[in-house]
Amino acid sequence: MPRKNRRQSEARRPTSGAQDPSLIDGPDGPVRVRRIPGSGAEKTYRCPGCDLEIQPGTPHVVAWADDGDGDDRRHWHTGCWNARSRRQPGRWR
Fold first, then answer.
1. What is the pTM for the complete model shown?
2. CA-CA-CA-CA torsion for 71, 76, 81, 87, nearest 10 degrees?
3. pLDDT of residue 55
4. In angstroms, rounded to a whole number, what is the distance separating the alpha carbons of residues 6 and 21?
5. Sign of torsion over alpha carbons 54, 57, 59, 62
6. Three-state secondary structure call for residue 13
7. How confident is the model over 13-19, as a mean pLDDT?
8. pLDDT tens, residue by residue, 31-90
9. Distance of alpha carbon 40 from the chain centroid
10. Are the beta carbons of 80 and 54 closer than 8 angstroms?
11. Cα–Cα distance for residue pair 15/32, rounded to 1 Å
12. Where does 4-93 have alpha helices with state H?
């Protein structure tokens, strides 16, 4: 009888809500980043990258200083977050 190679069961990750925050190096020190899926986005936020609203149901990124208490959290469009190093504050292009 042939042997079946089966993957051992892993702990299941939650399918809804925000993913675990990760730590990245920012220009002002370490920054915690959490990606929010569209199903977890329930409120309207203002993106600091483009100064436009992030509508409910839109996947986006939340970032805050690692040494902070979370009061400095900012919600970013994913594209604005990815382009933050190429864009100067207050510049549209």
1. 0.69
2. -100
3. 95
4. 30
5. positive
6. coil
7. 51
8. 899 999 999 889 999 999 999 999 999 999 999 988 877 788 999 999 999 998 886 655
9. 11
10. no
11. 21
12. 78-82
